[in-house]
Amino acid sequence: MLAFILRRLAQSVAVLLTVAIIAFAMFRFVGDPVNQIVSLDTPAEQVEQVRKDLGLDKPVYIQFVRYIGNALKGDFGQSYQFRQPVTKLLAERAPATLELALMSALFSLIVGIPMGVYTALYRNGFGAKLFQAVSLIGVSLPTFLIGILLIYLFSVHLGWLPSFGRGQVVKITDNWTTGLLTLSGIKALILPAITLGLFQMTLIMRLVRAEMLEVMRTDYIKFARARGLKTRVINFGHALKNTLVPVITIAGLQLGSIIAFAIITETVFQWPGMGVLFLKAVQNVDIPIMAAYLMMIAALFVLINLFVDLLYAAVDPRLRATIRES
Amino acid sequence: MTETTAPHKDPSWLARALDSDIWHSFKSSPVTMLAAFVVLVMTLAALFAPLIAPMNPFDPAQVFLMNANIPPRWMNGGDPQFLLGTDDQGRDLYSAILYGLRVSIFIGVIGVAIACTLGVTLGLVAGYFGGRVDSFIMRIADVQLTFPAILIALLIDGIVRGLLKSASREDIAFGVLVVSIGLAFWVQYARTVRGSTLVEKGRDYIQAARLVGLPAPLIMIRHVLPNVIGPVLVILTINVGLAIITEATLSFLGVGLPPTQPSLGTLISIGNKYLFSGDWWIVTFPGITLALFVLSINLLGDWLRDALNPKLQ
Question: Cα(B50)–Cα(B65) distance, rounded to whole angstroms?
């Protein structure tokens, strides 16, 4: 067990290190960082000073170690376009993105699981066929088109919900704001959360359906029927419960990609989050922000993956046995 | 995929194709036939856009700014000249959609071709040689899998922008998009092909080919490749849809094609600006076109996956 944990940890570190090398290479070799900081009429000795301050006069491997060291301390340098520390810029926008991501994950679970159960239980019924068709259309529609569609329907046509921004936000701590405590904040969150969560919802629906169909065929469900248990108890107490482990795993693993896909949703709804910041960085070749965002997403993915793997090993005795054998 | 050589004369390839399982499964699924029809019609319309379209939306001599934002023909204020209305630059929307679809399909197909070539080659090499080469390639694949394709494409776009001077951006936008999509989608091919190559490598016919002394590249291309290509076809179909969505998304986000050579995504992005002023048609028609095309491709891909799956036959 310990060997398994150590091996998984080593793999995670290797992935992060690879991403760090890519991030560093971007920072160092895509354009000259010095040129981005100084202006055209900066005197030559001052340019040299900036170069020295950034440590660019040292050998590349020392620069890399320094870059990693700074990154571990949470320092990713200065943004070229905003002239502010990247970490501060990201931290300011993190609450908006995290709030959006969590709400859409919640939405996809709350709607996706019942839809999956329904389509599995009544799989030849009209409703199930309809849900299946809608889910296929949902997969085929690009996220931004869904967003535009919702804006047109609920903001332009019906005028029920706002089409951009976060509404009124409440400050909880110095750099943590939330829109969940005001009515306008909650209203502003609805459309973006649905847009972002729709794809995950169809994914979860299909997964729950497949798992439920599998479980309903097993002997213990037949036995439960034979014992004369109520259908509701069998469906939800026995069958659904056993499908939830893979569902929660996938939902957890998808959390990382929800945050990455937030780039699109945030652009459509002008949501002041990290995704919009990253997109601006791509458009203006603001490498420090791009590199930091890359590392952040990688760290998030690796952490979630690691957590899920360890949790599996802890929960599932069969998996523990195979680990011991190998 | 078992081909037994019959003693009598082989029937023609057409007769064999019409008698195959795949054709039968195709004929018995009306949804698939409809999807194939839609894909075919739209691809042809895009291919022959210069012949079908009433005007060339890229030709400044045919575009007049005073024709901007005209509603579709059947609405109040519509102009019989413009079936689906015009966009903000006075371009006929119907023509722009035909040309835009052409650009979208073109980028999707070339991008997927790059991804497929790269992924299949790396997968073959990794599976055939094994050892260090294998773990090196597959580790890269693992790292890349941690990032969604759209993020990879955005990153590559940003890096290319940084490396090249911005003045030439419009000229290279097409190439950047295609390469971004190619590099974003190769992993799935590599993993699939590597898996089946590992299985095929142990078979007798490969051992025989080795004993005869055939060079490794020849064995990989002539003997391994035909036996591992089946699942690749499924990924290929679904990926064309994904690539077109990715291209549209990138163009919508403003890092894809410029408004002067619009794809469907660019058209939707333009239309999005006029949603609030009530000019709904600029965004709606390109949106429907995109959704219909991708939906049909996905339906075809789903069908192909089931049809090629031996477990379901």
Answer: 21
- H, E, C per residue of chain B: CCCCCCCCCCCCHHHHHHCCHHHHHHHCCHHHHHHHHHHHHHHHHHHCHHHHCCCCCCCHHHCCHHHCCCCCCCCCCCCCCCCCCECCCCCEHHHHHHHHHHHHHHHHHHHHHHHHHHHHHHHHHHHHHCHHHHHHHHHHHHHHHCCCHHHHHHHHHHHHHHHCCHHHHHHHHHHHHHHHHHHHHHHHHHHHHHHHHHHHHCCHHHHHHHHHCCCHHHHHHHHHHHHHHHHHHHHHHHHHHHHHHHHHHHHHCCCCCCCCCCCHHHHHHHHHHCCCCCCCHHHHHHHHHHHHHHHHHHHHHHHHHHHHCHHHC
Q: Tell whether A45 is covered by a domain.
A: no
In a domain, A197, yes or no: yes
Of B187, B156, B184, B186, nearest to B172 by C-alpha is: B156
Q: How far apart are CA B9 and CA B139, in angstroms?
A: 49
pLDDT tens profile A298-315 = 888 888 888 877 777 766
With beta carbons less than 8 A apart as the criterion, state whether B96 and B282 touch.
Answer: no
Q: What is the pLDDT of residue B119?
A: 92
Residue A225: strand, helix, or coil = helix
Q: ipTM value of the model?
A: 0.78
Count of the separate structural domains present in chain A? 1
List Cα–Cα distances, A82 to A86, A286, B154, in angstroms: 9, 9, 20
Q: How confident is the model at residue A283 (pLDDT cuts 50, 70, 90)?
A: confident
Amino acid at A132: Q
Q: Do A15 and B146 touch (CB under 8 A)?
A: yes
Residue A132 falls inside a structural domain: yes
Are A139 and A199 in contact by the 8 Å Cβ rule? The answer is yes
Give a yes or no: residue A300 inside a domain. Answer: no
Alpha carbon of A184 to those of A161, A165, A189, A277, B182: distances in Å? Answer: 9, 10, 9, 23, 42
Give the predicted TM-score (pTM) of the model. Answer: 0.81
Chain centroid, CA B290 distance in Å: 12
Contact A117, A212 (CB under 8 A): yes
Average pLDDT over residues A186-192: 84
Smallest CA–CA separation between B49 and chain A, in Å? 24
The 10s digit of each residue's pLDDT in B24-61 is 777 777 888 888 898 898 888 888 878 777 777 777 66
Counting one residue from chain A and one from chain B, the pairs whose CB atoms sit within 8 A come to 115
pLDDT at residue B6 in the model? 47
pLDDT band at B1 (very low <50, low <70, confident <90, very high): very low
Query: A139 at the B interface (CB within 8 A)?
Result: yes
Domain hosting residue A210, numbered range: 87-283
Per-residue pLDDT reduced to its tens digit, B214-247: 888 888 888 888 888 878 888 888 888 888 888 8
What is the DSSP code (8-state) at residue A176? E
Whether B150 and A281 lie within 8 Å, measured CB to CB: no
pLDDT tier for residue B283 given thresholds of 50, 70 and 90: confident
Q: How far is CA B264 from CA B178, B215, B271, B294, in A?
A: 15, 46, 10, 12
For the domain that residue A233 is a member of, what is the CATH number?
1.10.3720.10
Q: Give residues 60 to 89 of A whose Cβ lies within 8 Å of B.
A: none
CB contact under 8 A, B154 and A14: no
